Amino acid sequence: MSQKINVAIVGLGFGAEFIPIYQQHPNANMYAICQRTESKLNEIGDQYGIDVRYTSYDDLLNDPNVDAVHINSPIPNHAEQTLKALRAGKHVACTVPMATSVEDCIEIVKATKESGKKYMMMETVVYAREFLFVKELYEKGELGKVQFLKASHQQDMEGWPDYWPGLPPMHYATHCVGPVAGLLKLEAEYVSCFGSGTISEDLAKIHNSPFAVESAHIKFKDSDLSAYVYRSLFDVARQYRESFEVYGSKKSFEWPLIEGEDPVIHTAKKPEHEIAEKVATPDYAHYLPEEIRHFTGKGVYNLDENAHLSFVQGGGHGGSHPHLAHEFISALIEDREPFPNAWQSANWTSVGILAHESALQGGALIQLPDFKNV
């Protein structure tokens, strides 16, 4: 296909990681960049040879040449910028989470329907090589019947930008909700969550959120499955871990306990000492156009001087970035819903928001909205 999508990237910290991917994608034109700080804008623009530059987001949206925006701004800006873009007739890719309230999630789903434009939340985990490996096992029938799913995201957020301190752990839960919902394309129906432990008083008072750890059970709609997810952000001793695990009747997949080690496959009906086996996770660059395959193994932030915290702690996000860009561009070219689409992104994001509400209510069951039909 010769069609090209004019992409504008908004936010050039983590967002700069995607510039060379779009520049080399056969169906993308890395058209414009947007950053409030003009010096940063010009530095990145000069580095990558991008001529169209905006310090004003509204000016960017008024540019008729922009087909799609990829938003990488701070979390509090996601919903507002997404809604503005959709209502300006632009397709939207947005880094996680979709929004910080269920109400905004509903508004974004409505705006996609009203505008006829596509929305994709750029959830890294569901395009990481580990997820793609388990997805392949599932689709080949090697897992058998899936019986249970589990995920965690533990991270020390000390030293991160000013909107992170004291954040309720489940308010940033898509990295663990995404894989447990995404593997079988399940829809979370209701959630129950408990808080555990306490963070320092100076952090707790920022969001009136005392919990060091939040752990939630998710019940899926029209399914016999549930999942367990847990999160921590402050005052918990743990190496970065962004894990998910799947337990099937034939095989199960477990994440390694230590970063850099191989995951474990458990195979049923073998002699006990042979059930568990470490496996190397293959790369899935062959899913991508040849021009961007090399980005599964390296990125802008490989160099120490450019090391963005999310990329360093996230282990390169499992080679997911070119897969995310390719899925977004492909969905626009093919005029289909991306994965995850607007209602799926709203469902995943709202699990975390409502899980925190549940924790504040001592584990109360809280129903999720029917985002497909808002």
UniProtKB/TrEMBL annotation:
All residue ranges annotated as the Gfo/Idh/MocA-like oxidoreductase N-terminal domain in the record: 5-121
Record Gene3D superfamilies: Dihydrodipicolinate Reductase, domain 2 (3.30.360.10), NAD(P)-binding Rossmann-like Domain (3.40.50.720)
InterPro entries linked to this entry: Gfo/Idh/MocA-like_OxRdtase_N, Gfo/Idh/MocA_Oxidoreductase, NAD(P)-bd_dom_sf
Molecular function terms, GO-annotated: nucleotide binding
This protein's name: Gfo/Idh/MocA family oxidoreductase
Lineage: Bacteria, Pseudomonadati, Bacteroidota, Cytophagia, Cytophagales
